[in-house]
Specification:
Blueprint lengths: L6 H14 L13 E3 L16 E3 L2 E3 L3 E3 L7 H17 L2 E3 L4 H5 L4 H10 L5 E6 L9 H10 L4 E6 L1 H6 L10 H11 L4 E5 L6 H10 L3 E3 L8 H7 L4 H7 L9 H11 L4 E4 L6 H10 L3 E4 L1 H7 L3 H21 L13 E3 L3
Parallel strand pairs: 4-5, 4-11, 5-6, 6-7, 7-8, 8-9, 9-10, 10-11
Antiparallel strand pairs: 1-12, 2-3
Helix pairs in contact: 2-4, 2-14, 7-8, 8-11, 9-10, 12-14, 13-14
């Protein structure tokens, strides 16, 4: 029998593979199908573009999210500190990686708690795997994850394909909707449901909306493929071949946003999955998202310094500001999708 790797070892593997290997999805985000209407006479000044918005009781300087990444290792402590410092300095939102490791081993708590220690004012999201609700987790564990980092909201992430491809993965996703609804009804902070890179269908969006969740992070296909991550960390040839053909699995990010918007038009949507810059985030917002989340650009910057992360955030903000300026949109965080055009097929 193949040995199941400890959680902290898996976390270390994930960081290394994301930095060293080609793990891109075999499909694109779908955002390349869209472009903004350029206005040669925008009738606004660049300084008129306002990217700020309120969300879950906090004021953000821009609709940018440092998407959930890591925690539970010494290296993750450094990464999370730098990410949180940058988020505090720039006024954007941040999520942490799954806190299961810290709930099961108190020694891992500092790698997550560091975020609030250095960033007391940011919009901060706790994180657990939704499937753990079928493995003896419940409201108590959810509340403990929130309290651990004084989070403003909780993310429950969905990763059925990843779990199916892992040796010893948690694959019982039966009846989760009812348990998610129970958490949504009882949790004292907003509940966000997040995919991890394969997107959200209309059916899943409808079910989640009926559960009463406060937001959906679509995490569409087109960026990191976690099937390829699992392929690179496979302990044997069988597991490697099991994961390999799923490189082009999933619903792309653009279509995932539209799926949620169609069946739950009032749902707060976070866009992530292959977003690389401020133009991608702006397109996502035009399609109906509230925030745009990125992972790899911030992870790579965090390997250097908090200052490098700040540089990436400020560049992303400026790119977004210029997009809205050149499209003649003064209020960059809220505008109509008619500003977008679709590339010819």
């Amino acid at each position: 029998m193949t040995k199941v790797a400890p959680i902290n070892e898996r976390k270390s593997d994930h960081i290394r593979i994301n930095l060293e290997e080609d793990i891109h999805s075999g499909i694109t985000t779908g955002l390349e199908r869209y472009r903004f209407t350029h206005e040669a006479l925008p009738e606004i000044a660049l300084s008129d573009v306002n990217l700020g918005l309120p969300l879950f009781g906090k004021q953000l300087s821009a609709p940018i999210l440092i998407s959930s990444m890591t925690g539970g290792t010494e290296q993750a402590t450094t990464i999370n500190r730098r990410l949180a410092q940058a988020a505090q300095e720039t006024g954007i939102a941040m999520g942490v990686g799954s806190q299961r490791a810290a709930l099961e081993d108190a020694a891992q708590i500092p790698s997550f708690k560091i975020c609030r220690d250095v960033a007391p004012n940011i919009l901060l999201f706790a994180n657990l795997g939704a499937v753990q609700l079928n493995y003896n987790y419940g409201l108590d564990e959810c509340q403990r994850a929130v309290e651990m980092i004084s989070a403003d909201a909780l993310i429950l992430h969905l990763n059925p394909l990843q779990e199916a491809l892992q040796v010893g993965g948690d694959t019982n996703f039966a009846g989760l909707a009812k348990k998610i609804e129970e958490i949504s009804n009882k949790l004292e902070v907003p509940l966000i449901i997040k995919e991890v890179g394969w997107g959200i269908s209309e059916r899943s969006a409808r079910v989640l909306a009926d559960c009463g969740v406060d937001a959906i992070d679509v995490a569409g296909a087109g960026g990191t493929s976690w099937s390829q991550v699992e392929m690179h960390r496979a302990p044997n040839e069988f597991t490697r071949q099991l994961a390999e053909p799923f490189i082009d699995w999933g619903i792309n990010t653009a279509d995932s946003i539209l799926n949620v918007k169609k069946v739950a038009p009032d749902m707060t949507i976070f866009a992530s999955g292959g977003l690389k810059n401020g133009v991608d985030i702006a397109k996502s917002i035009a399609l109906g998202a509230t925030l745009g989340g990125m992972t790899n650009p911030f992870l790579k910057a965090a390997m250097e310094s908090a200052k490098k992360v700040i540089d990436v955030i400020e560049l992303t903000k400026k790119q977004m500001q210029i997009v809205f300026f050149a499209a003649g949109i003064a209020d960059g965080a809220r505008f109509h999708p008619s500003c977008l055009k679709i590339y010819p097929a």
